[in-house]
Amino acid sequence: MKRIVLSLAVWAIVAVPSAQAQSTEQPARTASYIEAFQNPDGGFAAKLGGPSTLGSTSSAIRSLKNVGGSIPDVLACVSYVKSCRDSESGGFAPTPGGKPDVRTTAVGLMAVAELLIADEETSAAAIGYFSKNVKDFEDIRIAVAGLESIKKTAPEFAKWTKQIEEMRNQDGTFGQGAGQARDTGGAVAALLRMGVELDKREAVLAALRAGQRSDGAWSKAEGPSDLEATYRIMRAFFMLKEAPDLDAVRGFIDRCRKDDGSYSSAPGGPGDLGGTYYATTVLRWVKILGGEPGLVETVGFVPLFNGKDLTGWEGDTSLWSAREGMLVGTSPGIKHNDFLATEKSYGDFILKFSFRLNGAAGSNSGVQFRSVRIPGHEMSGYQADIGENYWGCLYDESRRNKVLEKASPKALEALHKTGWNHYVIRAIGRKIVITLNGVNSVTYVEPDETIARTGRIGLQIHAGGPMVIQFKDLLIQALPEPTADRPAEPGFHLRTIKTDDGERKYSVSLPPGYDGSKEFPVVMFLHGSGERGDDGIISAQVGLGSAVFGRPEDYPFIAVYPQARKSWKADSEDSKAALAALDDVLKNYKADPKRVALTGLSMGGSGSWDLAAAQPERFVAVVPICGQGEVGSAAKLKSVPVWVVVGDADGQKTVINAREMTQALRDAGAKVHETEYRGVPHNSWDRAYNDPALLKWLTGHLTR
Questions:
Q1: Does some domain include residue 327?
Q2: Residue 365 dihedral angles phi and psi, to the nearest 5°
Q3: Which GO molecular function annotations are given, in alphabetical order (predicted)?
Q4: Is the distance from CB of 350 to CB of 476 less than 8 angstroms?
Q5: Is residue 274 part of a domain?
Q6: On the CB side of 34, how many CA atoms lie within 13 Å of its CA?
Q7: Quick check: is 639 in a domain?
Q8: CA 154, 156, 157, 160 torsion: positive or negative?
Q9: Distance CA 175, CA 643 (A)
Q10: β-strand 349-359 against 338-346: which pairing, if any?
Q11: C-alpha neighbours within 13 Å on the C-beta side of residue 192
């Protein structure tokens, strides 16, 4: 009897919902598809080679955010969107000089919000336009969506609310028959955007869920399922923070995907920009509602799992398997812990992954790092714990056998006990930081110098009852650990110089093939404020250094990584020490002083602007990343090629400054590029230093 119960329990646990991991190439392919629609006038067309429209431009901008792409020419796009505004009426027209309408005015507001160019004049004029021109429900629905994007309300909200509520059924739903879910979703989203609290929430949710078909999607009425109806209903779910069958929705979207990265509005149809907008938006909602990041940042990281089999891992294959792009541990109930471990060991790194635990009460799992196999079934080392009473904790497995640091209360508030969660583990030197669903959970500094700082990564099934643990999107960024050994060989090295300010340590990396027989160009990298110090190592573990360490063959230059104590201002002691480090490399290595480029991120991005303006003759190219410059000094760089990089989800001042610096350089006749990565916050450096176009441009200037 006991055995039968166990078998039934195993069946119940194994039958957890699937959630196939998305290929890391898919968002990039979709981004390339969308970017191709931008025309020279800055707008986007509905079809390749067709005329630009504001509707297509707004959809493209938002779709690129969903997949982490970038607008090829941001300043031209800003200009195009502004040109569609009708100053007389306050509305927006589909094309410059055209006739404004309610729908286009709403999507115009969405575009100005995404481009960070919304201002009080534009907002007030649009509100006035809506007040005069909004008539029916569809007008209300799209108008309040536009106003939500610019965080504004309209005097007519009370009137519009009443107009919608008059359409409502007695049970709180809207519409009838097969189209009820779509009608309810659209009306509910509009009411929520106007701040209305639903008084019959459960009936609304029941209607929305009842409309989901066996193929995972919804329809407008009696017709086939499509992404437009699905988008409208999923919008309501997302705003209500509720979920339908998410894996079924994901499956429908997968069937709409095309090889070129586009999506059709229904399976079997042609891919287009509209279908791509619906699909990428709904997919982002599906991920967030399921507890995953809306977009997993993969650039600069290497997959730990190939998505197909256990290559690179070793463990008990009766318990561990590769299924639907996930690593899955399935326990029928075991008396000892079991681990699936990487064959490779890692020292300093950043590791991120999503996980979902389903099982009997007390089920537990975890991810080992800097760990070793020990006789029997155990691993010894640090563990990012998973399970009741241990979520978000740092545990020391089979070594000190205790919790080293408990999870922060704020991190536990972000936990999804039955859904997907996301860990990021940063192990750098003696410091370990764990974030849970984007919230800092643990910050721990190892006090014991004898504890190993290298080891394997392992996934755990804890002893106990039946359970299933799923892992996906396992990505690692291995970091260099410069030493003073063998200073003339390719790789990362730690050096010390004497300056007027005392001894300074810095790192240098030598490219593959370096043997001292031929000259190489040089890139000097300035780190951000978080890497200030005096160990000379951490400056090489962020930005350019991590990119070079991951793929050294793609960076055919010597790189110098000085370390600041305070600031990279051009006249600071830190900048003087940086130039001294550069001179030390030029003197002691086969390095070409006529081919030196300068780059930096955040504080180092600002330092790149400042130092290059002070000594433009020293550099053949400059790449400032997410750092603000002095617009008045831009003209000093008119003879130096510049590539400006920022994430458009960074601080607004930083984004606008990047555009102003770009425009000032263009006005001065400089050769300048600008890239804004859509939806990327302050860390735009991983994208930048792994961007093939930027690297081609940089190496081109270094090899002339």
A1: yes
A2: -145, -165
A3: hydrolase activity
A4: yes
A5: yes
A6: 32
A7: yes
A8: negative
A9: 53
A10: unpaired
A11: 17
Average pLDDT (195-217) is 97
The number of residues making up the chain comes to 704
Residues 264 and 377 in one domain: no
In a domain, residue 2? The reply is no
Indicate if 576 and 696 belong to the same structural domain.
yes
Domain boundary among 156, 190, 209: 156
CA distance 296 to 274: 23
* Angle at which helices 25-35 and 273-289 cross, to 10°: 150
DSSP letters for 504-554: EEEEEEE-TT--SSS-EEEEEEE--GGG-SSSSSGGGSSTHHHHHHH-GGG
Q: Are residues 607 and 634 in the same domain?
A: yes
Closest alpha carbon to 420 in 353, 331, 475, 341: 353
Provide the 8-state DSSP code for 269.
S
Q: What is the DSSP secondary structure assignment for residue 576, as one 8-state letter?
A: H
Instruction: Please give the tally of structural domains in the chain.
Output: 4
Non-local (6+) Cβ contacts of 301 within 8 A are 350, 352, 475, 476, 477, 686
| Residue numbers of the domain that contains 136 | 26-156
In angstroms, the first-to-last Cα distance of the chain is: 79
Tokens, residue 490: 């390719």
pTM of the model as a whole: 0.93
Greatest Cα pair distance, the chain, in angstroms, is 84
Are residues 317 and 436 located together in one domain of the fold? yes
For the cut 60, the answer to whether the pLDDT of residue 549 exceeds it is yes
Parallel, antiparallel or unpaired: strands 621-625 and 591-601: parallel
Tell me, yes or no, whether 288 and 354 share the same domain. Answer: no
Residue 351 burial (CB count, 10 A): 22
3-class SS of residue 647: strand
CA distances in angstroms from 584 to 84, 213, 565, listed in the order given: 55, 68, 19
Q: Would you state the pLDDT for residue 629?
A: 98
In this prediction, residues 424-429 reach a mean pLDDT of 98
CA–CA gap between residue 204 and residue 214 (Å, rounded):
20
Q: How far apart are CA 370 and CA 521, in angstroms?
A: 36
At residue 13 the predicted structure's pLDDT band, cuts being 50, 70 and 90, is: very low
Summary mean pLDDT of the chain: 95
In Å, what is the CA distance from 606 to each residue of 1, 65, 652, 661? Answer: 70, 25, 16, 11
**603 SS3 class:** helix
Q: What is the pLDDT of residues 386-399, one digit of tens each?
A: 999 999 999 999 99
Task: Please give the Cα distance from 623 to 117 (Å, whole number).
Answer: 25
Q: Which of 287, 267, 293, 618 is nearest to 438 (CA)?
A: 293
Please identify, among 156, 177, 202, the residue that sits at the C-terminal boundary of a domain: 156
Closest by CA to 256, choosing from 246, 273, 268, 245, is 268
CA trace torsion 500, 503, 505, 508 (10° rounding): 60
Residue 67 has which token pair?
Answer: 């997949």
Q: Are 674 and 641 in contact (CB under 8 A)?
A: no
How far is Cα 600 from Cα 569, in angstroms, rounded to an integer? Answer: 12
- Span 640-669, mean pLDDT? 98
Q: Identify the burial level of 77 via C-beta atoms within 10 angstroms of its C-beta, where 0-12 means exposed, 13-18 middle and 19 or more buried.
A: buried
d(CA 359, CA 342): 24
